[in-house]
Amino acid sequence: MPPDPRAVLTRPAPEPEVTVAYGEHPDQIADLRRPAGEGPPQPLLIVLHGGFWRVEYDRRHTGPLAAALAALGHPVAQLEYRRTGQPGGGWPGTLTDVLAGVSALPGLAAAALPGQVAPAPPILIGHSAGGHLALYAAARAPDAVGAVLALAPVADLAEAYRLDLDAGAVAALLGGGPADVPERYAEADPRALIPSTIRTVVMHGTLDQQVPIALSRAYVATAQQAGADMHLVELPECEHFGLIDPTSTVWPKITSALRSLNEDQ
């Protein structure tokens, strides 16, 4: 029997060096990881976790991913945010938390990890719902973002609502469907925020059952037609969770895309 790809969600990872707060709520925090080695300072990588924006899923399941990125020599922040199913989560708290965290974390990380964070906008790495949040932050706060690596992102909220991904996850986030709260979709849906000015690489497995690759294909095609600096990497034989698993066969492609984005900073 092949290994369960979800095993990465509960795999132990080294503890972060420090946890910092970017707000007063207990979930307005981020775990920081020190880069390995003695290389020059690098831009901060901000990891935005998935879980369809629900409170049942938090930043800890990205521990293996974050630890592997730090081992490559990057300072890493695992951003937490308020989620649906808890006070303040959903509209608009989930979204405003991410914007606040992305804005504050480079300075907080530079203070907590002196000499190890380059004075450059951060690179956002978002998976699934976190991929949506990364694309959203890049579109809404472009001056605060250097580049985006979106892994199996929910890049089209209206279509995700129509497909009823994760049994109503988008409706729980925004408080209804596109016909109910159209202004919220106009504000939060990456498909409605094209074109973004931020260099973006979208990576998606062709076997993804949680977030269909068709969402990324349509989103990137529309963005490219609008002149955005965006590229889609399709990963044959990859499902949803291999993208955040450093032991997966696609991990070298993830690190290659990140290296390309970092070199362009």
TrEMBL record:
Record flagged with keyword Hydrolase? yes
Under Gene3D superfamilies, the record lists: alpha/beta hydrolase (3.40.50.1820)
Q: What are the residue boundaries of the BD-FAE-like domain, all occurrences included? A: 31-218
Q: Which organism is it from?
A: Micromonospora endophytica
- MF-aspect GO terms: hydrolase activity
Name of the protein in question: Alpha/beta hydrolase
Keywords in UniProt for this one?
Answer: Hydrolase
